[in-house]
TrEMBL record:
<dbReference type="Pfam" id="PF12724">
    <property type="entry name" value="Flavodoxin_5"/>
</dbReference>
<dbReference type="InterPro" id="IPR026816">
    <property type="entry name" value="Flavodoxin_dom"/>
</dbReference>
<dbReference type="InterPro" id="IPR052200">
    <property type="entry name" value="Protoporphyrinogen_IX_DH"/>
</dbReference>
<dbReference type="GO" id="GO:0006783">
    <property type="term" value="P:heme biosynthetic process"/>
</dbReference>
<dbReference type="GO" id="GO:0070819">
    <property type="term" value="F:menaquinone-dependent protoporphyrinogen oxidase activity"/>
</dbReference>
<dbReference type="InterPro" id="IPR029039">
    <property type="entry name" value="Flavoprotein-like_sf"/>
</dbReference>
<feature type="domain" description="Flavodoxin">
    <location>
        <begin position="4"/>
        <end position="140"/>
    </location>
</feature>
<dbReference type="GO" id="GO:0010181">
    <property type="term" value="F:FMN binding"/>
</dbReference>
<protein>
    <submittedName>
        <fullName>Flavodoxin domain-containing protein</fullName>
    </submittedName>
</protein>
């Protein structure tokens, strides 16, 4: 059973999560960065995993577009959906807002992997926003962004349990 992981991210968190996830999946896996590569023929894959990071409450545009363009094919696959976001507590809300309802219902695995703020790599504007978000979280006693590797682990385990 072969799996395609399709993703879009900006500063490397999503990519890091995807690479770890791919390494934990038992069957052959191909990775597609939507911001850099063209979409291959999806008929070659039994499972597709789609995910990306959240900016200002929205999933990466390239992911949203991919889901719109390939909805019919995705409905015929084993499907996994994930997001990376700074506010882990909002994972359910972000998942619901990010993917079309039919795909959400069809997907067998859904998760949020958390996120991180890689300030050094950010544009000035993004760094400014990230600092504001961090300050607000500290002030309100909320947890700071972090990758939830346990969620990546659970996701891979669920994918490995799937049979065609
Ligand atoms: C400008 C900016 C806006 C963001 N907006 C949100 C947001 O609305 N909600 C949230 O939970 N996280 C938000 N984040 C956090 C990102 O989702 C998080 O940094 C994620 O790890 C980014 O992954 P990437 O490097 O793969 O793009 C934002 C981060 C930045 C820099």
């Amino acid at each position: 059973m072969s799996t395609l992981i399709v993703y879009a991210g900006k500063y490397g968190t999503t990519e890091k999560c995807v690479k770890t996830l791919a390494a934990k999946i038992n069957d052959p896996v191909e990775i597609l960065n939507l911001r850099q590569e063209a979409v291959p023929d999806l008929t070659e894959f039994d499972s597709v995993i789609v995910g990306g990071s959240i900016y200002f409450g929205q999933l990466q545009q390239a992911c949203r577009q991919f889901c719109r363009d390939h909805s019919t094919e995705l409905m015929r696959k084993k499907l996994g959906l994930f997001i990376c976001c700074g506010t882990f507590e909002k994972t359910e809300d972000f998942l619901d807002a990010s993917f079309p309802a039919d795909l959400l219902e069809h997907a067998t695995v859904k998760a949020g992997f958390g996120g991180e703020l890689s300030l050094k790599q950010m544009s000035l504007f993004d760094r400014f926003v990230a600092r504001m978000v961090t300050r607000a979280a500290r002030k309100e006693g909320r947890s700071l962004p972090a990758i939830h590797w346990d969620e990546v682990e659970l996701f891979s385990a669920a994918i490995n349990r799937q049979v065609v």
